[in-house]
Amino acid sequence: MRSGKDVEREQKVRFIVAKNTAQFMLERLSEWGIKRIYGYPGDGINGLLGAFHEVGDRIEFTQTAHEEIASFAACAHAKFTGEVGVCMATSGPGAIHLLNGLYDAKLDHQPVVAIIGQQKRMGLGGHFQQEVDLISLYKDVASEYVHVCMVPSQAAHLIDRAIRIAKSTRSVTCIIVPDDVAEMEHEDPPRAHGATFSGEGMPNLPRVVPYEEDIKRAAEILNEGQKVAMLIGAGAYGAEEEVKEAADILGCGVAKALNGRAVLPDDLPYVTGAIGLLGTKPSNDMIENCDTFFMVGSSFPYSEWLPEPGQARGVQIDIDGTLIGIRYPMEANLIGDAKETLRTLIPHLSRKEDRSWREDIEENVSRWWEILDERAMEDAEPLNPQRVFHELSSRLPERCITTGDSGSATNWWARHLKLREGMMAALSGNLATMCPGVPYALAAKFAYPDRPVIACVGDGAMQMIGNNTLIDVAKYWHRWSDPRLIVLVLNNRDLNQVTWEQRVLAGDPKLEASQNLPDFPFARYAELLGFKGIRVDDPDDVAGAWDEALAADRPVVYEAVTDPEIPPLPPHIRFEQAQGMASALAKGDPSEIRIAWNSLRGKLEEFTNR
Ligand SMILES: Cc1ncc(C[n+]2csc(CCOP(=O)(O)OP(=O)(O)O)c2C)c(N)n1
Ligand SMILES: [Mg+2]
Hints:
By secondary structure, the protein is of the alpha/beta class. It is built from 23 helices and 18 strands.
């Protein structure tokens, strides 16, 4: 018989060892190497939040001012480190706010785990407050894996699988945790039919290389081409040396999709820069004139900026078989890791002896940099945004990380910043959503506190979420060994990218009701937060202000009062676009005269420099 003392001792031991499901989950995440969870509280996750007391500094809950900031930060963590990003939010409204950043991760193939709360099980289906059908809501964004933790003995495999699936399929996964389950004592599954016993851990992803016959077929096509054009994307990260070597052998130029912006530095003479609407003329010329198109690790979407079907023979490398051949009818497709596949391919490539195609590309590139320099120095009212980027470009600190947003600034970010070796860059490539710029910068600082980070953002995105993310920066910046988080805001009082799309693509005048933005004192606001705020509205101050910003001992907002009438023109205006512009002007655009003048001058500069 057990004595009263035995029972008491048992209870004590039980008290010490018992942990609730929430604590078990956080510990499991920690064992997977997760150190930070970006999130925002709510009573649907109170159980999970309570468990942070138990795990000490093994995992940090990093509060952001909005759940969307948390999901952008988790996505950026994955982009900058290659690790899994994790975010957390409460049931209903919190889970809904996470969605945009999660879709950003999904579309750019980043491993992110979302842990979201749910109301207590007994109330579900009862039209209870904040009850949202989260499985249905998340079914698309977390299409690879979304599950509810219905009993504590599920917790281990839910965590293990959410992380493992996110990593192995580069996707978003989600675990929904009803708050009462989070607070229940954790228990292992019983040794019984129906139970599953999950183990942690995952080896490196395997080396994936195509079969020899496929490699030979691809090499044959690349060897037969006289004018090869290479396009690289985010899938080429890690294959930098192989891309350089292949490009050298093939005597080609290398264009970059924006998600692969930092794979190769821009100071290599054969790197033609970005491609597409936001791209460069040398990229466009190379693509238009190539006879062989070699795409590595990219699913760049706009077919009008790729060779015309039939114009070039195509070879593609992608790790994901579902992304092969989706943009251009390729003749040879290689499913494999970019680095390993190029390594296997390179010995089969024969060096192009005629270097004239490469020489032409290099000449075009160097002329393009001159054109950009000149465009940057054109007058504007008051600042030419290109000048702001131009002056930053030559001052970019070693190892800096730069983030872009979605807006006209993205054009200048893509074209004018000459990234050098060792720098990093990211933006929302496929979702092309506004607002990631500052949240990405926040995550970059947490991942690399010793590196300077520069976010380049429009005033619309700042007013939407950027300003609120600065509140988070104010909260955390003292922890970073290099405090330089610099936010460049283009204050053009306009949703400028769309204004130009209305004019050029739709052929409509600017709709002032939808496009005009209120003027906001970004630099003064920065000062209120304890940062350095610099407002620049004189072209002669642009360069000096960058020196000041880069020498600051605290975060900086560089507010550039820029001219919304500088067109973020595509490198080569297509006929329909010119027609659209003419139609906008004919219908009486409010800024008619200056636009006509500016665009004409931009084009003239470009052609007179040819
Ligand atoms: C969340 C979201 N809403 C709307 C859009 C459409 N959009 C793309 S760029 C842009 C304008 C951005 O304005 P701003 O941030 O001021 O930058 P600017 O173009 O003026 O440089 C808009 C509305 C979008 N991409 N994402
Ligand atoms: Mg704007």
